[in-house]
TrEMBL record, chain A:
The keyword Cytoplasm does not apply. The keyword Chaperone does not apply. SUPFAM superfamilies: CO dehydrogenase flavoprotein C-terminal domain-like (SSF55447), FAD-binding/transporter-associated domain-like (SSF56176). It comes from Methylobacterium hispanicum. This is 6-hydroxypseudooxynicotine dehydrogenase complex subunit alpha. InterPro entries: CO_DH_flav_C, CO_DH_flav_C_dom_sf, Diverse_Substr_Oxidored, FAD-bd_PCMH, FAD-bd_PCMH-like_sf, FAD-bd_PCMH_sub1, FAD-bd_PCMH_sub2, Mopterin_DH_FAD-bd. Keywords: FAD, Flavoprotein, Oxidoreductase. The gene is kdhA. Residues 1-177 form the FAD-binding PCMH-type domain. Pfam families: CO_deh_flav_C, FAD_binding_5. GO terms for molecular function: FAD binding; oxidoreductase activity. SMART domains: CO_deh_flav_C (SM01092).
From TrEMBL, chain B:
The gene is cdhC. Keywords: 2Fe-2S, Iron, Iron-sulfur, Metal-binding, Oxidoreductase. GO terms for molecular function: 2 iron, 2 sulfur cluster binding; metal ion binding; oxidoreductase activity. This is Caffeine dehydrogenase subunit gamma. Residues 10-86 form the 2Fe-2S ferredoxin-type domain.
Length: 279, 183
């Protein structure tokens, strides 16, 4: 398996990358860590005319703390973020989910923004972004905009990004007081694509559950604080509404059951977590 | 900003196992093929070519990475290590390689180069890595011969030796017990 021929531009600055995207439009693909794009190229599922490499752009290499959030630019590798001191305090959900992303060997190269751009419906990084109500920061040569994560993912590997836009950064809201977080996933083996992944965010008024691997995009739903059979009913309704499909890895019925079981587990863990950090 | 044309070949320079190296490649050439065909270093194996099997793993700037998911033009200026760099001199094995031999941590050998490079890079970064951590590292590789237990035993023993500890100490005893349990 070899990629079809393409030209290659190694951008040294954001302007160079944005100029290249403006010039080549849908003929171009951005490459950062390459851990999602290279398999697509090798299998010739995509045949861009030009790759724009953004990994040498110094301005995109460092996470930037903002008030109530961590902004993670396009050049930040997953392994670098996972090693960031204080990640488990600031972004407990991401700290729990990142070890499930591929393997040590792929996290060493892969970036967070790259996973968001790829928009695999079972991927953990987009799931956490949706669960935490984060944002995707898009930039083209003459405009920039922020898109809510829930609006950004529009289908199976389809996003709001226009052809001339670069995902400059993703913005993950950091831990809020009195809020708890939990993540769980079921896959065939650790490092495989998730059959179902669940992320929960719970505070004193609301429970939020985000599910990956079932619908064509990571999907979240907010519930009031529920228990017992009311919670079972709510989870069951959510599981059915996600429209689970059947494939080689799992039946639709198994996926719905995982949504109910994992959903209950992460909501309960997140609720415990929220009580702990309130006291 | 370098702009490389699709059809043409371009010179890429990097450090390979401590020495300067260069190779001429098309932009689409994978690092696996640049190493094997361009430089004749066939120790890096090619398995699935989409990042799953781990056979092609090399160290790029000190971290383990899939060579099949890396463009050769992307490693300009990088520091690469491949399995050819592990032995201290011809005819002698490195610490990790010798441990693999002692523990029968390979049979057909197809996956071995990748696993050695993952463990070599990882133990440099985290010399105190224990069983759980190393299990996860090795989990990034497919091995259909060994069942993994001897690979972990070899990794734990090599880690102890590299830390300057007595290789018959607790870490290795744990490794040997695991092997017995497996056998």
């Amino acid at each position: 398996m070899k990629p079809a021929p393409f030209g290659y531009l190694r951008a040294d600055s954001l302007d160079q990358a944005l100029d290249a995207l403006a010039r080549h439009g849908d003929e171009a693909r951005v490459v950062a860590g390459g851990q999602s794009l290279l398999p697509m190229l090798n299998m010739r599922l995509t045949k861009p005319a030009v790759l724009v490499d953004v990994m040498r752009i110094q301005a995109l290499r460092e996470p930037v703390p903002e008030r109530g959030a961590l902004v993670i630019p396009a050049g930040v590798r997953q392994a670098i973020l996972l090693d960031r001191p204080g990640l488990a305090d600031d972004l407990p959900l991401l700290a729990a989910a990142l070890p499930w992303v591929g393997h040590v060997q792929t996290r060493a190269r892969g970036t967070l923004c790259g996973s968001v751009a790829h928009a695999d419906p079972s991927a953990e990084i987009p799931l956490c972004l949706v669960a935490l109500e984060g944002e995707v920061r898009l930039r083209a040569r003459k405009r920039r905009r922020s898109v809510r994560a829930e609006d950004f993912f529009t289908g199976m590997m389809v996003t709001e990004r226009a052809d001339d836009e670069l995902i400059e950064a993703v913005r993950y809201p950091t831990r809020a007081a009195g809020t708890g977080y939990a993540f769980a996933e079921v896959g065939r083996r650790h490092g495989d694509f998730a059959i179902v992944a669940c992320a929960a965010v719970v505070d004193a008024r609301r429970m939020r559950l985000a599910v990956g691997g079932v619908a064509d995009r990571p999907t979240a739903r907010d519930f009031p604080l529920l228990d017992g059979s009311a919670l079972d009913d709510a989870l069951n309704a959510f599981a059915w509404d996600l429209g689970a499909g059947e494939d080689l890895h799992a039946t639709a019925r198994y996926r719905r059951d995982l949504v109910r079981q994992l959903g209950r587990r992460v909501l309960s863990e997140a609720r415990q977590d929220s009580l702990r950090c309130r006291s | 900003m370098p702009q490389l044309d699709a059809g043409a070949r371009h010179r890429v320079r990097f450090t390979l196992n401590g020495a300067p190296a260069e190779v001429e490649v098309e932009p689409r050439t994978l690092l696996t093929d640049a190493l094997r065909h361009g430089l004749g270093l066939t120790g890096t194996h090619v398995g699935c070519e989409h990042g799953v099997c781990g056979a092609c793993t090399v160290a790029i700037d000190g971290v383990p990475a899939r060579a099949c998911l890396t463009l050769a033009v992307g490693v300009e200026g990088c520091d690469l290590r491949t399995v050819e760099g592990l032995a201290p001199e011809p005819g002698r094995l490195g610490v990790l390689q010798a441990a693999f031999r002692r523990h029968h941590a390979l049979q057909c050998g197809f996956c071995t180069a990748g696993i050695l490079m993952s463990l070599d890079a990882y133990l440099r970064l985290r010399p105190r890595a224990g069983r759980a951590e190393l299990t996860e590292v090795v989990g990034g590789h497919l091995c259909r011969c060994t069942g993994y237990a001897p690979i972990l035993a070899a990794a734990l023993e090599a880690a102890a030796i590299l830390r300057g500890e007595d290789p018959s100490g607790p870490a290795t005893r744990e490794a040997t017990d695991a092997e017995k349990a497996h056998a």
